[in-house]
Structures are given as structure tokens and as C-alpha cells.
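Blinded run. Sample ID left blank on purpose so nobody reads anything into the name before looking at the predicted structure. Input follows.
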Amino acid sequence: MSSRELQRVEVMGRVASGTLKLVHAAEMLELSYRQTKRLWRRYRKKGPEGLKHGHAGQSSNRGKAKKLRRRVLQLIQNKYSGTEETRFGPTLAAEHLAEEDGIVVDHETLRRWMLAEGLWSRQRKRTKHHQRRDRKAHLGELVQLDGSFHDWLEERGPRGCLMDMVDDATSRTEARMGKEETIWAAVGVLRGWIKKYGVPRALYTDWKNVYKRKATPAEQLRGQVPVTQFGRMCQKLGIRIIAASTPQAKGRVERVHGVHQDRLIKKLRRQGIASYEAANRYLEEQYLAEHNRRFARVAAEPEDYHRRKPPAWQLRQIFRVETERAIGNDWVIRHHGRYLQLQPERKHRRSSKRKALVCEWEDGSMAIYHQGEKMAFTELAEAPPKAIPPGPAVAPVRVRKPAKQDHPWRQSYKSMQPAVAAVPRFRLRPYASP
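Blinded prediction complete.
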């Protein structure tokens, strides 16, 4: 009996014992009162067996004949069985049985028969298929940026990182090789892209601290959006940075990494290149042009979404690391363990905003700005002495001297001692036992 039938037997037993009324039994079984009376009538006549389904234990009225089942399984074993690579599945076997043998059997029925005979095994549930995102329609609408760490120079040179930029619409590629995936590595490949094509609209990156970072508690309280140094550079250029949550999201640049790890390594080996500088010259002069000619495609729309390239002086003002530092009272700022003595003009000395903007470039040069104006500075060999702030004026302490000569303050402590009478001295003798 099924669980539902067993539940009905239990409830009807309580009705028979008089502990439960029929109307309450209908509520417990979630049936109408009339249907409950029918069950109660069958229970009184036949007992618990009266609540059992009348067709239980018998073959289905819609079932196939055993003779047909044996014939179908014999055909499948002779014609459509084999190894896992060659055997037919239930759906395909059902189609061929209908076309070639004139036997119509539903594929689900055939699946159950084949599982029972061992002619088919259940397939594991495959992972969900993620459809690839369609390409952008215009050149420069979205460019994917990522770094690939690999043994590019094999044993001839150090292990490095290849920075790749791949246009989403055309698969055009720009690349630079360096030691790490740093700010200047990203700036170098972006500068090369801007030089060739212009300023793209958006960059698709990952969540490395070079491109994106999480807000600090103080920034969260202020509601401030965190920006990295590279992000600030892109903001000035009008480039939006989109961070991907998974490597599959930026699959286009990931697949280009695989192409470079096969083709570029072999070409660098034939050229005998053993340094980053020589590798970048080879990329610029030969490899990238050949790669784009072979793998790039035409965009779906002819319009180019790149903005015009800024002049060189403007790019220099953008591609720099900016850090804000507090200015001390002696016009000294501390930056990365260095003490820099500013040389302000007279109009700056009365300024209440003691903040300086330290700008650094990739070549190691540095400039300091205060209120938008560049300031001269010199580096101190050692830390300047700390200036002690002046305290409040303290009045001198006046020592009060008594006027009278016989005042106790004017007498010696010896003269103030009272005379002590002479006291006889006693000598202690050793104790003698009796």
C-alpha cells in the first residue's frame, strides 16, 4: 500500500474506534465529506484491504506486451548496441525502430527497458551551459585588458607578465611584456593602444588592485567611491573601467593568452630573445602586425568609437602617480621615507591649506604642486629636528625671606635643637649562667 492509503487506514481505524468523527476525518484527509463516506463504507465492508487501489499489483492497461518488449530489446542488442561511443541512445534508437523496423515505442519507455537490461547507463547531469556574450558592434566600444604570467622567455630570461589589450568587436590586439602586472605596465600597454587607435570608451578588467579596489571604512562612511591610481588616469581620459567577476566573462582576452602562449613563445625562441626590451621591440615591429592580420576581424558596424588621441604634454599630465601629503610648519613633507624641504614663495607662507600634491612619473622624475602651482624643493639628508611649540609664559618664583633675625627660617638646625642632659652610659656585660 502507498503512504496515502496507509494514512487513510489509520484515520478510518480511529473512526471505527469512536475517537474521531467522520466530518473531522474528512478534514484530516483533505477530502470532501461525501468521498470520506465512500471510504468509510469500503472500510466497513472489507477492512483495510478495501482502501487499497483495485489495480495494485497488476500490469498497466497501457503497458506493452512482454513479447513486444523482448523483440525490441533483441533488436537493440543486435543493431543499436555497442561501446559508449557507438551505441544508440533511447531517443535515437526509438527513431530508428520506427523508421527501419516499423515498431513505435516511446523513447521514455524504451529508456526504462534499456536501463533494466543494462543496455544504457544514466548520464551525469551536465553543468549549465553559459551562452557566450555577443561581441560589441563598434571598434573601441569595449577593450579587454589582462595580464598573463608565464615563462615567456623559457630558460633564456626571467619569468614575466604579458599585458594584453583585445578589442571586443574586432579582436585587434596590443601587448607589452614586463616583470609584473603593475600600474606602469598597464599604462604602457594603454599608451601604445592610444597611440595607434585613440582613446577607447571602456576597459574590461578583473578585480586586481591595479584597476579596482574596495572602499575603506572611512570611504564607506563618506559614501566615496574608491579609485585606484590607474582608475584616476582612466577617469581623466574618459575611460570607464568594468570589472569582471569571473575569468569566463573576459574570455576573449583569455583565449588570446592561449594563442600567445603557443605561438609567441616559439617565435621568441627562434629569434633568440632573452630580455623584456628585445621582446617588446619584436612585438611592436613584427609579431603584433602579423597577429592582427591573421586573427582580427571586421566589426559589425563601420563606426569607430575611439576618441581622438590627446597631445603628448596632456598624456604626461595624466599618466602620473599623484599622492597628497601634509605640509609641516617648517614646510617639510615626508614621502616614502624621504624628507622634502619645500621652498615656498612669500604668498604661500600665509596659506592655511597645508596640502601638497606629489606627482611621480615612470622615469623617476617628481614634481610637487601646492594650490595648483609647482613648487621647488630639495631633499634633506636626514630628518629635521622636531620643533618644540612655545608654551605659556611662567612667572618667576619669588622667595620670601623673613625680616626678623631670630626667625626659625634664619636659624641653623643645630641651634634649634634643645639641650639634652648628660645621661650616664651603661656597659653591657655578658650573661653568666648560675
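Unblinding after everyone has recorded impressions. The chain is about 35% helix and 15% strand.
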